[in-house]
Amino acid sequence: MQSVIHVDLGERSYDIEIAPDAIDQLGERMRSLDLGKKVLLVSNPVVFRHYGDRAMASLRDRGFEVAHCIIMAGEQYKTLNSIQKIYGQALENQLERSSTMVALGGGVIGDMTGFAAATWLRGMNFIQVPTTLLAMVDASIGGKTGVNHPKGKNLIGAFYQPRLVLIDPKVLKTLPAREFRAGMAEVIKYGVIWDEALFEKMERCDRLDQLRFLPEELLHDILVRSCQSKVDVVVQDEREAGLRAILNYGHTIGHAVESLTRYKVTNHGEAVAIGMVAASRCAVQLKCWDEACDARQFELIEKTGLPTKLPSNLDIEKILETLKTDKKVKDGKVRFILPKRIGEATISDRVTSDLLREILPTLQ
């Protein structure tokens, strides 16, 4: 099964291509985009060991000059120090503005490579080859790039669209089960905020906690529908002036959890799952949506094997303090994404500290 989704952003438009063994077509697809000869492939040690040779062989077979840069995986490495390493390789290999940086890895690699591409020589070509479910359905699409600051996640960054997103579902076979579940958190998010049919498809599946329980057809549908959901939103609001903020459903509390635990206790998807539970319960209290929808979401998160409780010993007052540095703060108020029904969400500034003091203890 193959699918192509077009991201229509005028001169910044590009395609998302989903196909088995797509990684072996990287060179051919880049050649068709008429890119410069020099390529810097950025990856992490594990992904590079699995797929680096194939990706580089594909590029060399089509006449590209390829160098590579290996960055450690993990949010704790998503820093300006890692960006400096990419810059160093770009300088050493004399990359030009017509050159291309290729991100081969998960969301961390994609975010850092995109930010490096956006800022080196004031902007060069950038290709996403995501290797995790989370990166395939979320991080690789939409042009958000950046790194973390010690005081908060993704506070340093730029909007910078890739020239192509190339998704090979077969690489998910080497993805650890925990990372697969992390990606499913973002898929559930799309079901809640945008695509009711996707949500219902997942409800009908007996198990969602491991790749092997998903029929191939369902996996393809999850990839296509999730990518299309994000594209639908991004083409209407590329720079998050309004609608695009709904893509942050579950991320407000989620980012605080990640930051306060120094990215060592929960991964991104796990934190988002916890954040969705919290946001859902706030929505019930504010009468945005009902307890039946809250229960359906909770059951789907549990079926995916994702956490629904805050990490132990996490201080609620510290969570509230961290929220003040969130990127979604506007006029001093934290904007929460709250669900209205399965398939629709809204942006709200009605979630007060007092409400969170009431809701968050139920997650302990």
Automatic annotation (TrEMBL):
Domain 3-dehydroquinate synthase N-terminal: 69-181
Gene Ontology CC terms: cytoplasm
Molecular function in Gene Ontology: 3-dehydroquinate synthase activity; metal ion binding; nucleotide binding
Keywords per UniProt: Amino-acid biosynthesis, Aromatic amino acid biosynthesis, Cobalt, Cytoplasm, Lyase, Metal-binding, NAD, Nucleotide-binding, Zinc
Localisation: Cytoplasm
Keyword Nucleotide-binding annotated: yes
Main location: cytoplasm
GO BP of this protein: amino acid biosynthetic process; aromatic amino acid family biosynthetic process; chorismate biosynthetic process
Protein residues bound to Zn(2+): 186, 251, 268
EC identifiers of the protein: 4.2.3.4
Every 3-dehydroquinate synthase C-terminal domain range: 183-329
Cofactor, free-text remark: Binds 1 divalent metal cation per subunit. Can use either Co(2+) or Zn(2+).
Enzyme class name: lyase
Pathway(s) it belongs to: Metabolic intermediate biosynthesis; chorismate biosynthesis; chorismate from D-erythrose 4-phosphate and phosphoenolpyruvate: step 2/7
Catalysed reaction, written as an equation: 7-phospho-2-dehydro-3-deoxy-D-arabino-heptonate = 3-dehydroquinate + phosphate
Role: Catalyzes the conversion of 3-deoxy-D-arabino-heptulosonate 7-phosphate (DAHP) to dehydroquinate (DHQ).
Entry similarity comment: Belongs to the sugar phosphate cyclases superfamily. Dehydroquinate synthase family.
PANTHER family according to UniProt: 3-DEHYDROQUINATE SYNTHASE, 3-DEHYDROQUINATE SYNTHASE, CHLOROPLASTIC
NCBIfam families cross-referenced by the UniProt entry: aroB (TIGR01357)
Name of the protein: 3-dehydroquinate synthase
Organism: Oxynema aestuarii AP17
Gene (name only): aroB
